[in-house]
Specification:
With 618 residues, the protein is of the alpha/beta class. It is built from 20 helices and ten strands. It binds adenosine-5'-diphosphate (ADP) and magnesium ion. Magnesium ion (MG) binds next to helix 12.
């Protein structure tokens, strides 16, 4: 229920539309009751009454017009009698038909208007939900995604939001419309026979309980189904990303089997879910009929005892029968809400997920890097609270304008250490200071503004060369366009020449993740992006490791241009590229094993020398 209210809270922004929807729905209910209840007295008047009775009605004069059913019926009877007396019964028949058609027309106009405004509310809510989720996806720390399936997140953003749109929102409408219907009918029933209505009240909990049982099992199945769909999405997403490898390893059959299997699980779950959903209508109809028969039995007994007039009893049953329809719809709405709640639960898991990288209440802004970065006794583990520290007691100073190189075996913690600078992760112990201020006290955006990052896999987007270089700077002003800053950055990054050879130069689309470019070209675009950002601090995480020696030379050249007059943290696989670093830090299993300049470390003959010798002889 809390979750339902949470979703409802999104309706807040669309109150105006929700209100209009309710108003028009009430109007349509009133007109619908009106159209049905009016027919009986009219036909009565038309076929059963003697001519002198019409005269009697007319003789009473025009009844006072008030906002009450009696007054309205009185007025109708009066004018109808008048029509019959003056123009004959045929005329009156036409009059009635036209009247009922008009009422039904109005009823449907109001119903349409109700839906018309609901469309704004339901789609608006869904739009807001999607926006909230996307914002959250951008805000959540990287660590969140190590434990989530990408496909599952995608299915939450699409299918689950859709489910909310049409189950919960539809139900909200129904929940507002039908109770009004039911209350009016129930009121009539209490008025007619309190004793029988009491009986109804006693009997109702039995079907309600049964329906409740089925619906909570429906919700569990629905959650299972959604999770399965997430897995299915993940497989699709991984397949699209890994087609090259799948084909190269002849793994089509393997992947296909995996997909077919998952799809089968999903389908089975969905079949089970729909069977439960489909149960709602027959179940509630049968239970309604059961209650009705109990009524017929007890009410019939009262009639036989002469404690209830037969006519009242028949009318009562008729009214009760009318209540079954809306009650059935209400149970269906209840079922839909259960299904929607399963989605709401999944959506809420994202929207309410903890942002472990938080800013302090009043973060400090920082616009320049003046002195040094300091790691003070920093320890970190990916599995929080675990003893498996990836970094242990790191102490490190990076002075302004210096080049610090991190070397060590794969898995020794180099990338992890570099990731702590832009606060992708926070240390578990110790702290990191920049110009004497703890990173945690800084405004995250101003901290990240200071840094440029080039990683081994260049992360590019499906867009033009120009927009990839000017990424995050929008809209591109004319000064930034080709010929302006973008081109200047591309020149520094050794990218200008090959860009000019592309069909549409700076406006060429580079494909998904830059798939239309070679590895070296991708990397130089990524470097141009860092050049354009012009940050005082650079982090290069194996920026050349994935390249062949020819493009490595071009990229290294570009990197050297980029590093000029900046502070750099360089992680390099090939030690030859970092020989001139001001300090080389050798990491081993998360600890600093050695540190010093290239020559000093070689002279020492320790871990670094071993690593170096291995590369020289290869
Ligand atoms: P390097 O860059 O030196 O090769 P990393 O810093 O990437 O090493 O990784 C250090 C250790 O942390 C490795 O043992 C790796 O398995 C582990 N690790 C890296 N990323 C994650 C992650 N997202 N979740 C859990 N463990 C991780
Ligand atoms: Mg690494």
């Amino acid at each position: 229920m809390k979750r339902f209210l949470h979703i409802l809270s999104y309706v807040r922004n669309y109150m105006r539309y929700a209100f209009l929807n309710v108003v028009f729905n009430i109007l349509s209910v009133i007109f619908s009751l009106f159209s049905l209840t009016m027919i009986a007295p009219f036909l009565n008047l038309l076929f059963l009454k003697q001519a002198d009775e019409y005269a009697t009605i007319l003789a009473k004069g025009v009844p006072v017009l008030k906002l009450s059913v009696d007054s309205l019926i009185g007025n109708f009877n009066y004018y109808l009698s008048k029509v019959i007396m003056e123009n004959g019964k045929l005329h009156a028949l036409i009059f009635i038909c036209v009247l009922v058609v008009s009422i039904i027309f109005l009823k449907n106009v109001f119903r349409y208007l109700g839906m018309f405004y609901m469309a704004n509310a339901r789609n608006g809510v869904v739009m807001d939900l999607r926006n909230a989720m996307y914002k959250k996806i951008l805000a959540l720390p990287l660590s969140y995604y190590s434990n989530e399936r990408k496909g599952d997140l995608m299915s939450r953003m699409t299918t689950d939001v859709q489910e909310i749109e049409w189950s919960v929102m539809q139900s909200i409408e129904m929940v507002f419309r039908n109770p009004i219907n039911i209350i009016i009918l129930l009121g009539t029933m209490i008025y007619m026979s309190p004793a029988l209505t009491l009986l109804v009240m006693i009997l109702i909990p039995v079907p309600a309980l049964l329906i409740g049982l089925v619906s909570s099992s429906l919700r569990r199945t629905s959650v299972k189904g959604k999770t399965r769909l997430g897995v299915l999405f993940s497989i699709i997403e991984e397949t699209l990303g890994g087609l090259r490898i799948i084909k190269a390893f002849n793994a089509e059959r393997f992947m296909d089997k995996k997909f077919v299997q998952e799809n089968k699980f999903y389908t089975h779950t969905m079949i089970r879910m729909y069977r439960k959903v489909d149960l709602s209508s027959p179940l509630s109809e049968f239970l309604g009929a059961g209650v009705l028969m109990a009524l017929v039995y007890l009410g019939g007994k009262m009639v036989l005892d002469n404690s209830l007039p037969a006519a009242t009893f028949i009318t009562y049953i008729a009214v009760f029968y009318q209540i079954i329809g809306p009650s059935k719809e209400l149970t269906q709405a209840f079922y839909s809400i259960q299904r929607g709640l399963a989605s709401a639960e999944r959506i809420e898991k994202i929207v309410k997920a903890e942002e472990s990288i938080k800013e302090v209440a009043s973060p400090k802004g920082i616009s320049t890097f003046e002195k040094e970065i300091e790691f003070k006794n920093v320890s970190f583990s990916y599995t929080r609270g675990d003893t498996g520290y990836v970094l242990k007691g790191i102490n490190l100073k990076i002075g302004k304008g210096k080049v610090i190189a991190l070397v060590g075996q794969s898995g020794s913690g180099k990338s992890t250490l570099a990731d702590m600078l832009p606060r992708f992760y926070d240390p578990d112990k110790g702290e990191i200071l920049i110009d004497g201020i703890s990173l945690k006290d800084l405004k995250i955006t101003s901290l990240r503004d200071l840094m440029g990052i080039v990683t081994q896999e260049s992360i590019l987007f499906n867009d033009t060369v120009e927009n990839n270089i000017a990424f995050g700077i929008s809209p591109i002003s004319s000064g930034r366009g080709a010929g302006g800053e973008v081109e200047a950055a591309a020149k520094i990054a050794n990218a200008h020449d090959f860009i000019l050879q592309m069909p549409e130069k700076y406006q060429t689309n580079i494909g998904d993740r830059g798939s239309k470019l070679s590895g070296g070209q991708r990397q130089r675009i990524a470097i141009a992006r860092a050049v354009l950002k012009n940050p005082p601090i650079l982090i290069l995480d194996e920026a050349t490791s994935a390249l062949d020696s020819e493009s490595e030379r071009l990229v290294q050249d570009a990197l050297n241009n980029l590093m000029k007059s900046r502070t750099s943290v360089v992680i390099a696989h090939r030690l030859s590229t970092i020989q001139h670093a001001d300090e080389i830090i050798v990491l081993q299993k998360g600890e600093i094993a050695e540190r010093g300049t290239h020559n000093a470390l070689l002279a020492k003959g320790g871990v670094y020398k071993k690593l170096y010798d291995m590369q020289v002889f290869v």
